[in-house]
Amino acid sequence: MIYPIVAFGNPILKKEAEEIEEGKNIDALIKDMYATMDHASGVGLAAPQINQGIRLFVIDSSLMLDEEDTEKGIRRAFINPIILDEYGDAYSFEEGCLSIPEVRAEIIRPEKLTIEYYDENWNLKEEEFTGMTARVIQHEYDHLEGILFVDYLKGLKKRLVQSKLIDVSKGKVSTDYRMIYPVK
Ligand code: NI
């Protein structure tokens, strides 16, 4: 099943998501999240973006890399993740979000992170990620905390995207995937 994606302006995107009961069968939901992400050509999707306020996201960072990259991407689900540490050189990279179509902005984040999470078989893992994979994880993890990438913009950069954000919240955007808009 392909879910519609919640657009900017919906309160669920600003709420902290809740932990999932350990061992709960969420296989179907994870499968549907992968399908929804792929359908929208996304590299990551967090549960609040399909209107479910729970601590789960899926990523496919391989789409951001090509054969020349030494880094290999991963396709994986993260359940109840906790970023334990972020480190390395901070760098700027242009981010976008399926909930905020047509808006892109340079965001500065640390290069590496260590994260604890359950994989889709409820195995507890602690791993280090770097590069594009770390970047996608940071963006998706923020969704579970109720943070959107545009929240990092300040001053002029924030003002430049403001009218576009209002358009998105009113449904004045065209996407090739279905969306749920807060204001009709
Ligand atoms: Ni996003």
Q: Measure the end-to-end span.
A: 25 Å
CATH superfamily grouping? Peptide deformylase
Number of alpha- plus pi-helical segments: 3
Instruction: Please name the CATH architecture.
Output: Alpha-Beta Complex
CATH topology label? Peptide Deformylase
Strand order of the largest sheet: 2-3-4-5-6
Number of domains: 1
Instruction: State the total count of DSSP E strands.
Output: 7
CATH class: Alpha Beta
Strand content: 25-35%
Q: Which class best fits the helix and strand makeup?
A: alpha+beta
Order of helices and strands: EHEEEEEHHE
**Residue share in helix:** 10-25%
From the alpha carbons, calculate the radius of gyration and give it in angstroms.
Answer: 16 Å
The stretches of 5 or more residues where confidence is low (pLDDT under 50) are: none
